[in-house]
Amino acid sequence: MILFIPILCAISSTWAEEMILDPPLRVDLSSPGDVQFLTPSNVLTEWINMPIDHFDPQNTDTYRMRFMFNDQFFGGDGSPLYILVGGEWDIVEGWLRAGNMYLTAQENKGYMFYTEHRYYGESLPYQNFTTENLRFLNVDQALADLAYFIREMKSHPRFAESKVILFGGSYAANMVIWFKQRYPHLVEGVVGSSGPILAKVDFTGYLEVVHRAFQSECGDQMIATIRQGIIDTVASMATEEGRRNLERAYRLCRPLNYGNEFELGYFSGFISWTFSGSVQQARPGTLRSICNNFDSYGSTPMEKVGGYIAATRGIVNCTNISYESYVNRYRYTSDNNRAWYYQTCTEYGYYQTAPRSGTIFVSINTVQEHTRCLQHIFDV
């Protein structure tokens, strides 16, 4: 039986503020862990004017796409170009100072670039993310951006004979693989890591992987504790005393709206995305440390789950869970999360629903709950 529950989104938290979760399967690609030990940066930032619509010759509007570069290892005219393709995040210079592409460029005397995806970070065609303004946010336009960028770089004499290799992870892994299929004449090869290539609305496999990761690192006994904690959480919703225990275990400033299925679904995301976030952002030893400390988070299984969430998310005193605040945040905010919600709604799905093998929140968090959430955000 899989222990994890489906999610609506990921988390940020502070004392007594609303807990605002992020869209499903969205990551912020922070710098590699070892970048702090490196010498001063050789990375510079530039901008390129990019067509907003590559497929309408009558539309001459442009936006400024940000990119970073590092020529630290460049071997001169004709040496290879390595391009790290940005996904649904702000690009940061650390990935041009450490990581797999950095080491590859070092070995092969390559020039390194890092491109930012339209509508993310500082590469914004519009400042206001209305549904109308988001119409140019899709992978076809993003791949065309990348093709335009490569052609522009190759127009420089020192890069004219250079071979191009693309790197990408997560959604950007999809992009580099699709780019090789669509624009094979522009790249020599691509390296895609952990790409969810198959667009899938009912995406149960994600939480299955999260379950297996914790089981592998922590063993069956801890899995049993977490499962019991989640079972006790559901059971606690049925009585007044149980609800008080639940609110104390999860450091909630105010009671949940137990009659609102959307708020309960939102609360399930509060739990499940803490676990999946620990796996997705893990570095060597991270999960093992969680395993070793899990019993210290509380006395009962439910308290241990709640204590782990508080420790992971930095909840010192208490936090609020409000589905209404969540919807209002993404209905009116122009940021990476609203953009990614738009992409999952129009192109990919990726709704991390519970596996069908006995998962307990499946009756609350279904594909329909995810799609209705999107209807609330985009007023459709």
Word description of this protein:
By secondary structure, this protein is an alpha/beta fold. It folds into 2 domains: 33-193, 3-Layer(aba) Sandwich (Rossmann fold), CATH 3.40.50; 200-378, Four Helix Bundle (Hemerythrin (Met), subunit A), CATH 1.20.120.980. Helix content is 41%, strand content 12%. The chain has 12 helices and 8 strands. It has a 6-stranded mixed β-sheet. Helix 3 (171-182) links the parallel strand 5 and strand 6 (189-193).
Q: Give the CATH level 1 class of the largest domain.
A: Mainly Alpha
Strand content: 5-15%
Distance between the termini: 36 Å
Helix content: 40-55%
Radius of gyration: 22 Å
- SS content category: alpha/beta
CATH-level-2 architecture of the largest domain:
Up-down Bundle
Tally of domains: 2
Task: Give the tally of β-strands.
Answer: 8
Dominant shape: globular
Pfam families: Peptidase_S28 (PF05577)
GO molecular function: dipeptidyl-peptidase activity; serine-type exopeptidase activity
Signal peptide: 1-16
Protein name: Serine protease K12H4.7
List keywords for this structure.
380 residues; glycoprotein; 8 strands; Four Helix Bundle (Hemerythrin (Met), subunit A); alpha/beta; two-stranded parallel ribbon; 12 helices; Peptidase_S28; disordered N terminus; single chain; 2 domains; Rossmann fold; dipeptidyl-peptidase activity; signal
